[in-house]
Amino acid sequence: MSEPRMNLFERYRPFRRWVEAGLWILILAVQAAFATVVAVIDTREAGHGAATWQPVTWEISSHLALLALVPVLIVFERRFPLNRSTWRRNWAWHVLGSVIFSLAHVGLMVGMRQIVYAWAGTRYDFGDWLAKWPYEYLKDARTYALFLLAIMSYRLFMLRLQGEARVLDPPEGVAEPALPGAAETADNPPESPPRPDRFLVRKLRREFLISASDIDWLQAQGNYVGLRVNGHDYLLRATLTDFLTQLDPARYARVHRSYAANLDRIAEIEPLDGGDARLHMRDGTHIPCSRRYRTALRS
In this structure, which long-range contacts are made by residues 48-57, counting pairs with CB atoms below 8 Å and at least 24 apart in sequence? Predict the structure, then answer.
């Protein structure tokens, strides 16, 4: 089954970063507005005598600090993903991450409050950190978990929208593996791992095939490899290093720590300062080539 020239993911991709940033800003802005109204009402009912600008400053500074930490949390979750195969080794990193997240959040919001208070001609005092931070951490840990859940849910949705590939079957003509215990001799060399010919891609409720020879380039994306195939992007659950061992080394070469290229699809090698290069692919895209791999690529 063939895929349409421009599917939903391809139409969404040019606006993806703007939409993602806009959603986070919108969500936190709405949350800040509600929290500010509640804080103003609570302050007046408590009879503390605080001016209205003070609870407004408290809530806005808190939510601005959270917004600033969202990109950091996205990168951190990508580095230490939580899924069925990784949560056992990565959960401790996220416990530590929640602590750092809370400290950064409190530090940023206190700094912003001090600036606003100084501009108003007064002084902001957060109080005893050792006494107040545990309470702040309990709130921040809940926020950290909610942010993490939102990031993971969105990534899962995008994975289903983009399409996940898997190896369909080994190429035809691969010899059966030797029997256990068989001697490795000149007449009976060790079997090389089979190289996949085709991949089955599942996208929402549709399935179609792509050929390994149609891969233009590959990119490491955490626990996945991004496959660029005929102008479309798919994800394969593997690491770039492991997956390259399954591809023909005469056709595919690593050109960067995070990229590999189909040598037949390279149109031009553009030298850059420092010995690096930019590869112009035949599909119109560009990928980096680091100095470490450039010599091997030229040879």
Answer: 53/116, 53/120, 57/112, 57/113, 57/116, 57/117
Report if residue 180 sits inside a domain.
no
In this structure, is residue 184 part of a structural domain?
Answer: no
**Half-sphere exposure in the Cβ direction for 297 (13 Å, CA):** 28
pLDDT for 188 beyond 80: no
Q: What global pTM score does this model have?
A: 0.64
Is 155 found in the same domain as 13?
A: yes
Q: Lowest mean pLDDT: which of 8-12, 141-145, 146-150? A: 8-12
Range of the domain at 244: 164-170+194-298
Instruction: Report which of residues 136 and 177 the model is more confident about.
Output: 136
Number of folded domains in the chain? 2
* 155 and 243 both lie in a single domain: no
- End position of a domain, from candidates 162, 185, 215: 162
Task: Return the amino acid letter for 173.
Answer: G
